[in-house]
Give the backbone structure.
Amino acid sequence: MAWYPAHVTTEELLKTLLDHAGDAILVVSDAIYSRINEFYLEKQPGKILIIRSDLTSALLNNIYAREYKSIGLIGFDVDIDTINVIIASQPRLTGLNLSGNTIGEGGARAIAEHLTGLTQLDLAANNIGGGGARAIAEHLTGLTQLGLSDNEIGEGGARAIAEHLTGLTQLDLSDNNIGDGGTRAIAEHLTGLTQLDLSDNNIGDGGTRAIAEHLAGLTQLDLSDNNIGGGGTQAIAEHLTGLTQLDLSDNNIGEGGARAIAEHLAGLTQLDLSDNNIGDGGTQAIAEHLTGLTRLQLRRNTIGEGGARAIAEHLAGLTQLDLSDNNIGDGGTRAIAEHLTGLTQLGLSDNEIGEGGARAIAEHLTGLT
């Protein structure tokens, strides 16, 4: 079976499904099918069913032919009739992705009441609201992975999830305005979480401290586009020392927050601190302490040549680096090019780089894709 995060691209989704071929079906519209990289279709031909026809006829002609553990419907306007077809034909379904289909509260309730064997569910961007979230929480108590980003569930929906879905290990409630209250409920009740995305939720210092104090088992955390500041960052750094992936972009953490992360989170391999004004001082701390990083994003952080040189000298294992919208100049660019020869992805837009910096990249970073 397969789990599909809300942010996953069509190509990544198809690749995931190929890995689980034989018990999964992906139904795509012509518009999305045209964007799928043919490599994935040729890699393992015949292992997965790709349907390009009208959704209703596709379901009627194919979905009743066999039982699947996991279903993804991508690029359609799924209505209650389609959901009823899924319910009737696949009563033992364990994985379902209907993200971006505007099924509303009614569709969420139908799924919750009839597909009680689900362990993995993604209903991102479906306008299910607090009522739909409560229905899911009350009926689908066997869920271990849940994605409800961009659904306007609010604090009430978050509290319902926290109270009923105590078996969750992965949760994405990004862009739902759950606030500090909903965040505290999640943190206090769902202590088995290992992956949590609460980006863009109006979370402040209080909610962040609750996460830090209660969710010690987290390995991946995304709190981007909130307002956690330096205090919340300090709490995360001191308590969540098992983190390997962290995104705190756009949180006004400053140099102090960056230093706290650098000093305590030595196990990080992926870090995004974009839009945080950490400056050269915070950048140097990150570079000197977090030498296991493979992916680093520090866009718009007032970083100059000194910060770029620190990254170049200490983070030889980087494969992906984004320093866009800083001021590293030709000197910083040359340092990166000469030292970080394992880079495959590099973002340096808007950095006052001239011909010399461009030539250094061309001469040294031949592995860029």
Q: What stands out?
A: The first helix runs from residue 10 to 19. The chain has 16 helices and 14 strands. The mean pLDDT is 87.
